Amino acid sequence: MDKPAKHKWIFPARFRAGGYSWKASKLACQRLREAVSEIKKVAKKDPILGAEGAVRLMEKIWPALEHVDSSSGALGSAVNKSLDALVPIVVNAPADEELRKRWLDRLWRAMEEDGVEYLGPVGDRWGELCGSADLAGKWADDLVSTLRFCWTDPNPGNYFGGTTACLSCLLAAGRYEELLELLELCRFPMWHYRRYGVEALLAQGKKSEAIRYAEASRGLNQPDSVIDQVCEEVLISSGMYEEAYQRYGLSSALGNSYLARFRSVSKRYPMKDKPEILADLVASTPGQEGKWFAAAKDIKQYELALELANKSPCEPKTLTRAAKDYLDTETEFALGCAMAALRWLCEGWGYEVTNLDVMDAYDRAMEAAARLENLDEVAGRISQHLRSTDSPAIIFVRQSLARRLDIGGN
Q: Cβ(315)–Cβ(337) under 8 Å?
């Protein structure tokens, strides 16, 4: 039987029960990152020892963080990110069945004591953590009767913390029909559960049925974008790129910004022209054309970028930064960006705008105009626009530029 080697871990002393106070969220997040880094470093040399460290840290998460304020969501995100790194270490460890049983028993006790389900992602992958279909089947036998009782009890309101662990074990054990039949008992179908049904159908090679099953999972409070991503992946795996793009390509775009979403779609569909992808994305968000300015700029569609920037509000700081970056290489584009920035500033758009932002946009416009030898024309256009109305935003821009233009502060 494999036994973890003895090792002096650093992180346990930092994860004592009740070790973090109410306002220690930032410190707790930092300690989690450090602990995961330590465990990953050890796992590279000794996978068994690394997995032992991962299990030990997961046991300590709730006792250590019990009193920390997690209302901002930062701590929960840090825990989820840590578990994303820790669970594969345990899954991939070359441990024998006896050692893996002990790990599972420890983790199950930790999940039962977890007051806010920090370890929910561990249960989601319980079948993988079992390491074999036989062990997953044994866990499924222990859990399935409780889950079936909860889902068939005529009195609603029962909750079983091992729901996803049971479903995951049935999937890992290859008991696909039993899994699908069990899912039909759930009164309120949830994607968080039904995704195991999709995996079961895919494991049987039933891709069309898997897509239909996923589509039937839509409903109130269900993650449509995640469902789109799963369906898209199924079609792409079948070589049906065009259908995947038309049905799910745009709605499943990933990224924290519009530029990231564009790059995500372009990466998944390299056979399609980027301008075509951008045009489809722009059309999918009517009234938000300006949000795609950076994407158009990224593929050097400068005329289109300016058209989008002037069609709907665009962040003035983004436009000013583009004017500065392209002053030497695309001077006309730089001028257009600076003028668009001034326009949206005059209309009251922008996040935490200061007078420095206004002056920066004006300076970029005048610098580009000087290089294009139309300084007087650009200055006149700006001056005329600033005299057009007396809105609060324009008064603010006037005051910011009072020393640069002879128009007075009001």
A: no
Per DSSP, the residues of 283-341 read HTSTT-GGGGHHHHHHTT-HHHHHHHHHHS---HHHHHHHHHHTTTT-HHHHHHHHHHH
Residue pLDDT, tens place only, 222-271: 999 999 999 999 999 999 999 999 999 999 988 889 999 999 999 999 99
Query: Both tokens of residue 248?
Result: 């799910």
The answer on pLDDT for 2 being more than 70 is: no
What is the per-residue pLDDT across 252-266, written as a single tens digit (0 to 9) for each? Answer: 988 889 999 999 999
pLDDT at 6 over 80: no
pLDDT at 5: 61
- CA–CA dist 200, 209 (Å, integer): 10
User: In terms of Cα–Cα distance, which of 207, 257, 246, 260 is closest to 230?
Assistant: 207
% of the chain exceeding 70 in pLDDT:
98
CA distance 168 to 183: 12
* DSSP codes, 71-125: TTSHHHHHHHHHHHHHHHHHHHS---HHHHHHHHHHHHHHHHH-SS-TTHHHHHT
DSSP 8-state assignment for residue 279: H
Q: Is a pLDDT exceeding 80 seen at residue 378?
A: yes
Rounded Cα distance between 394 and 234, Å, is: 52
> Residue 284 and residue 228: Cα distance in Å, rounded?
15
Which helix H or strand E contains 381, and what residues bound it? helix 375-386
- Cα-Cα-Cα-Cα dihedral sign, residues 155, 157, 158, 163: positive
CB contact at 8 A, 324 and 297: no
CB atoms within 10 A of CB 45: 9
Answer whether 188's CB lies under 8 Å from 151's CB. no
Give dist(CA 159, CA 257) in Å, integer: 37
**Rounded mean pLDDT, 184-199:** 94
| 3-state secondary structure (DSSP) of residue 46 | coil
> Which residue type occupies 4?
P
Contact 50, 42 (CB under 8 A): yes
Residue 406, pLDDT score: 63
Q: How far apart (Å, rounded) are the C-alpha atoms in residues 33 and 82?
A: 7
